[in-house]
Specification:
The protein is built from one helix and ten strands; from the N terminus they run αββββββββββ. By secondary structure, it is mainly beta. Strand 6 and strand 7 form a beta hairpin.
Length: 129
Amino acid sequence: MDKIANPAPGFQRNPDKVITIEPYKGTVIVRAGGTVIASSANAKVLAESPYPAVFYVPFADIDFDKLSATDRSTHCPYKGDASYWSVLPAGETGKDAMWAYRRPFDEMLEIGDHGAFYASKVSIEATPA
């Protein structure tokens, strides 16, 4: 079956757009105020020019007890609708610091059940293997 069930409208309009998702060979640790929010050896790196690369951490490796879902949402024509969480140990700085695409478009299914964090709001350490 060659048909895509939930295609990204962005790729339909701009088929030359390139977004890559690769496993990160190493460990990614996300901290706020000295508290570990996430730690993973299974993170993925999403690269989309002209933006900086972003780590996507599996939900299983994120401590959701240190997060609080917010009402914010955004739409990306390539990835889908993003939901946001505040990182509680970061205080006001941590507002909407993590986002995730719970139902990404088919081309981006690899980042489903993964969260990404704003490097300006939390500390992200990536240690290569």
